[in-house]
Amino acid sequence: MRESASNTRFAEVVLPHLDAAYNYARWLTRNAQDAEDVVQEACVRGLRYFGGFRGDNARTWFLAVVRNACFDWLRRNRPAEVTVVDERTLEAFPAPARLVPEQHAIERAEALALSQAVAALPLTFREVVILRELEELSYKEIARIADIPIGTVMSRLARARALLAHSPLLRAVGESAAGGTR
Amino acid sequence: MNCDDASVRMAAYCDGELDAVASADVERHAAGCARCGQQRAALLDLGKRIREEVPYHTAPKSLRERLMAPASTAPRVRGPWRWAGLGAAFGAAATALAIFVAGEVLQRNEHDALSRQVVANHVRSSLTGQRVAVISSDRHTVKPWLSARLDFAPPVKDLAEKGYSLEGARIEALDGHAVAALVYRHRNHTIDVFVRPESGADVPPSVHTFRGFNVARARGAEMAMWIVSDLNVEELTAFAADIAHRE
Q1: Which of A12, A33, A101, B47 has the fewest other C-beta atoms within 10 Å?
Q2: Same domain, A53 and A128
Q3: Same domain, A88 and A78
Q4: Range of the domain at A59
Q5: Does B88 touch chain A (CB under 8 A)?
Q6: How many Å lie between the alpha carbon of A140 and the closest alpha carbon of chain B?
Q7: ipTM of the assembly?
């Protein structure tokens, strides 16, 4: 009886944040089906650990559970994506070469280019952009979810924004737009 | 403040992470410095573009169904996921929410009880995917639809110019009475506005947080309004003031 009350409370606390959980998992895995699997696994884990939740910020708590489920999934299924963990390695990360646009990409809408540029960001940069800009979370909340210091949140955000601003994809679109108005 | 100080703080300034004093310092410097002004404009523009152009993926119906399904019928997923009990938990939550809506949960004060119902309605409509019963961004369609189903005519405002697009409306129950629920969208946030007649002087919006949602309460033009969303407090307050403002 006590267990079912706890389950009910878990669902009440967590369900309202299902969109946030799915959006986060969707951008981390970049795949709809994988994101569903990850969120489902996060719900199973969350239910198990929910007894330990004493905080007031259910969204942050649940997103941290989703993140752990996500990274475990990625380590199993796409280990190459999670191998870059050293901050210095991250700093040295070059603008991804595969972002060089093909001819047809230049003609695509700017919005699509920006989405693609975000999707092409390395995992650790992508997640801070999603948490900050789409979930509109504070540095402190992002730090708690990703389990990193606030200073690291700021440096990753700065690097992510620089990568986006200099993304060849966006530049190509910008140049073709400028060329078009000439 | 010099350029180095301003530049180091610019991202935190644009992300709303600086206190009022530090923010004012950065603003003052950026106003008189072309380079830092440009840096600020570029950062703000990038953030705005990401929020507008990068899609926010809401949980699909298939995921909600998977979570809501009873344990015995829940489809097995790939891999060694454990699964027992989840469907039962979520099913129980849906029942619990239904109970809140019926107003059977006794509360010490009416304010709390109403916030609870308002949030429960908001959550339930998003869970069941039945956010709107009439889909229209045209208030001249939405208003008559509501008036035909209620014994009052709720004000329906067009706030598209301020970035709040009308998505439609539905009828909800609040305290056992039928009320209008207007649905607006702002970036990726859904905003529910519950409206019912209430006599008395206009009351400016006051916002409090309930279960992770912000709920604004206001009275304007003889209408009581509850506005609920996961939108931040500042924007929700401004929106509530616009909604309650007597035309």
Answers
A1: A33
A2: no
A3: no
A4: 1-82
A5: yes
A6: 10
A7: 0.81
Q: Of A46, A66, A82, which residue sits at a domain end?
A: A82
The torsion of the CA quartet A126, A128, A131, A132, rounded to 10 degrees, works out to -120
Are A81 and B21 spatial neighbours (Cβ–Cβ below 8 Å)? no
Q: Which chain A residue shows the shortest CA-CA distance from B91?
A: A8
Q: Which of B15, B58, B96 sits opposite A23 (nearest CB)?
A: B58
* Exposed/middle/buried for residue B185 (C-beta within 10 Å: 0-12, 13-18, 19+): middle
* Residues A51 and A89 both lie in one domain: no
What's the mean pLDDT in B207-225?
86
Instruction: Identify whether residues A163 and A90 lie together within a single domain.
Output: yes
Cβ separation B15–A132 shorter than 8 A: yes
Report residue A110's pLDDT band, with 50, 70 and 90 as the boundaries: low
Whether the CA torsion B240, B241, B246, B247 is positive or negative: it is negative
Q: Tell me, what's the pLDDT at B11? A: 93
Query: How many domains are there within chain A?
Result: 2
Strands B165-174 and B213-220: unpaired
Tokens linked to B156: 């329906």
What's this model's pTM, rounded to 2 decimal places? 0.61
Determine, for residues A43 and B11 on separate chains, whether the beta-carbon distance falls below 8 Å. Answer: no
For the ranges A106-115, A123-132, B207-216, which has the lowest average pLDDT? A106-115
